[in-house]
Design brief:
By secondary structure, the chain is α/β, with parallel strands linked by helices. Helices cover about 45% and strands about 15% of the residues. The protein has one domain: CBS-domain. Helix 8 links the parallel strand 4 (about 130-135) and strand 5 (about 150-155). The longest helix has 18 residues, at about 5-20. The chain is elongated, with a radius of gyration of 19 Å.
Length: about 180
């Protein structure tokens, strides 16, 4: 397949992927409503919040894209990380901008731009990302992030396709009103 055709196919998949992310209706409570809830009701509600209700859009790039394309996406969009996905949208890994900078700064790497166009993003991934299902409670996702010392966790659907991401900012936005 010609490079331009592959790029068009990739762009079409990205636009389709944007449409696939469901806009789930989040349950919003005012402080007044929450203050009228009993502690048991608060506890039950906070345990029922799922990752699907609270997830954010994930930053993705395909596994066959070059390191140069990863750098371009990170800098153009002001992202600090990107999830590497295969053709089916299944997450293969996560690359952090700092890791790429460390790789470039190493003396063993040829600092010319040519190597960045030749190396696929897939080669920068050394461990698969930790994932949770859309039905996973937000509290469980938070516990996994704390236990494994990660700041974001990928949310996948029943087929294993990446549909979003949950991070500490998500936890901070949805949990405090029930703890206080």
């Amino acid at each position: 397949m010609a490079p331009k055709a592959f790029k068009r196919k990739r762009e079409r998949r990205r636009s389709i992927g944007d449409m696939m992310m469901k806009a789930t209706a989040t349950r919003r409570f005012t402080r007044e409503v929450i203050s009228k809830m009993s502690t048991r009701e608060r506890s039950m509600y906070v345990r029922s919040i799922s990752c699907a209700e609270t997830m954010n859009k994930a930053h993705t790039i395909y596994s066959m894209d070059s390191v140069a394309e990863v750098l371009e996406q990170l800098t153009q969009n002001n992202w600090d990380h990107v999830f590497i996905i295969n053709e089916d949208g299944v997450p293969m890994g996560r690359i952090h901008a700092v890791d790429i900078l460390k790789l470039i700064a190493r003396k063993t790497v040829n600092r010319s731009v040519a190597w960045m166009h030749a190396v696929p993003a897939q080669q920068l991934v050394n461990v698969p990302p930790m994932t949770v299902r859309t039905s996973t409670p937000l509290l469980k996702a938070g516990a996994l992030m704390l236990a494994h010392d990660i700041n974001q966790i990928a949310v996948v659907d029943g087929d294993g396709t990446l549909v979003g991401v949950v991070g500490y900012n998500t936890m901070a936005r949805h949990m405090p009103k029930f703890i206080i």
